[in-house]
Amino acid sequence: MKRDYNIIIEKDSEGYFLGYVPELKGCHSQAKSIDTLMLRIEEAIKLCEEVHGITDKQTQFVGIQKAKKNIDLRN
Protein backbone atom coordinates (compact mmCIF):
# COMPACT_ATOMS: atom_id res chain seq x y z
CA MET A 1 0.00 0.00 0.00
CA LYS A 2 1.31 3.43 -0.91
CA ARG A 3 0.77 6.23 1.61
CA ASP A 4 1.22 9.96 1.00
CA TYR A 5 2.41 12.26 3.78
CA ASN A 6 2.63 16.03 3.99
CA ILE A 7 6.15 17.21 4.81
CA ILE A 8 6.61 20.70 6.22
CA ILE A 9 10.03 22.17 5.42
CA GLU A 10 11.56 25.25 7.03
CA LYS A 11 15.04 26.77 6.95
CA ASP A 12 16.62 27.90 10.21
CA SER A 13 18.95 30.83 10.86
CA GLU A 14 22.03 28.60 10.51
CA GLY A 15 21.03 27.41 7.03
CA TYR A 16 19.72 23.95 7.98
CA PHE A 17 16.53 22.63 6.42
CA LEU A 18 14.12 21.22 8.99
CA GLY A 19 11.39 18.83 7.96
CA TYR A 20 8.54 17.24 9.86
CA VAL A 21 5.50 15.11 9.11
CA PRO A 22 2.37 16.32 10.96
CA GLU A 23 0.58 12.95 10.61
CA LEU A 24 3.36 11.08 12.42
CA LYS A 25 4.16 12.14 15.96
CA GLY A 26 7.89 12.75 16.42
CA CYS A 27 8.71 12.34 12.73
CA HIS A 28 11.28 14.98 11.86
CA SER A 29 14.81 15.46 10.57
CA GLN A 30 17.26 18.12 9.44
CA ALA A 31 19.99 18.52 6.82
CA LYS A 32 22.08 21.11 4.97
CA SER A 33 20.32 20.40 1.65
CA ILE A 34 16.74 19.61 0.70
CA ASP A 35 17.85 16.48 -1.20
CA THR A 36 19.54 15.10 1.92
CA LEU A 37 16.60 16.17 4.06
CA MET A 38 14.17 14.23 1.87
CA LEU A 39 16.29 11.07 2.14
CA ARG A 40 16.41 11.46 5.92
CA ILE A 41 12.67 12.18 6.17
CA GLU A 42 11.91 9.01 4.18
CA GLU A 43 14.02 7.05 6.69
CA ALA A 44 12.26 8.79 9.58
CA ILE A 45 8.84 7.94 8.10
CA LYS A 46 9.78 4.25 7.84
CA LEU A 47 10.99 4.23 11.45
CA CYS A 48 7.90 6.05 12.73
CA GLU A 49 5.63 3.62 10.87
CA GLU A 50 7.53 0.67 12.38
CA VAL A 51 7.28 2.07 15.91
CA HIS A 52 3.77 3.57 15.85
CA GLY A 53 2.19 1.63 13.00
CA ILE A 54 0.74 3.07 9.82
CA THR A 55 -1.75 5.71 10.79
CA ASP A 56 -5.09 6.25 9.11
CA LYS A 57 -4.89 9.91 10.16
CA GLN A 58 -4.56 12.05 7.07
CA THR A 59 -4.40 15.78 6.79
CA GLN A 60 -5.05 17.90 3.74
CA PHE A 61 -2.58 20.66 2.99
CA VAL A 62 -4.43 23.95 2.87
CA GLY A 63 -1.74 26.62 2.80
CA ILE A 64 0.64 28.73 4.83
CA GLN A 65 0.10 31.99 6.64
CA LYS A 66 2.52 34.15 8.59
CA ALA A 67 1.65 36.15 11.66
CA LYS A 68 3.82 39.13 12.53
CA LYS A 69 4.23 40.25 16.10
CA ASN A 70 6.16 43.23 17.40
CA ILE A 71 8.70 42.11 20.00
CA ASP A 72 10.01 44.49 22.62
CA LEU A 73 13.73 43.68 23.00
CA ARG A 74 14.37 46.37 25.62
CA ASN A 75 13.87 43.98 28.56
In short:
The chain has one helix at residues 34-52, and strands at residues 8-11, 17-20, 28-31. The protein is α+β, with helices and mostly antiparallel strands and 75 residues long. The protein has a domain at 8-52: Double Stranded RNA Binding Domain, CATH 3.30.160.
How does this structure look, described?
- This protein has 75 residues and is α+β, with helices and mostly antiparallel strands.
- The protein contains one helix and three strands; from the N terminus they run E-E-E-H.
- The chain has a three-stranded antiparallel β-sheet, with helices on one face.
- The longest helix is centred in the middle third of the chain and has 19 residues, at 34-52.
- The chain is globular and about 55 Å long.
